[in-house]
Amino acid sequence: MIGERRKKQIESILLRAVQQRMARGLSDPRVRGLITVTRVELTDDGKRARAYVTVMPAEHAELTLHGLKAATAKLRRDVMDLVHLRDMPALEFVYDEGLKAQMEVMSLLTKDKLEREARENTANDRPGEEQG
User: Fold this and answer.
1) CA distance linking residue 73 with residue 52, whole number of Å
2) 35 backbone dihedrals φ, ψ, rounded to 5°
3) Do residues 37 and 102 both lie within one domain?
4) For residue 115, what are the domain limits?
5) Based on the structure, what is the number of domains in the chain?
6) Count of beta carbons in the 10 Å neighbourhood of residue 65
7) Global pTM?
8) Which H, E and C letters describe 87-125, residue by residue?
9) For helices 4-23 and 72-82, what crossing angle results, to 10°?
């Protein structure tokens, strides 16, 4: 067991290292689009780290995740070169569904706002037409 403070430190270090490694890109043709590592969660025993990723555009997500899972061993070695941990946890890549849902909600709110503004503009234009 590791302490909560140490766990958060390791998660932060791994997040930066995985982001840095992902920024260099991968040669796997399955890995496409803009990949963002949103967070890293370390298990309580420190043996495994789950890296949550988003992929834009979303239609590339499934194939990209397969490519990331295939490259996990290489990515882990590359991250080990960037960080200096006594025991490097095993990496696991997971699609971040939370961010996808959040983006869908934001999209719906934006759409609703635009529709409301269009209705208001239409209502405001009518009195002006009658006067002119």
Assistant:
1) 17
2) -105, 125
3) no
4) 97-132
5) 2
6) 18
7) 0.72
8) CCCEEEEEECHHHHHHHHHHHHHHHHHHHHHHHHHHHHH
9) 110
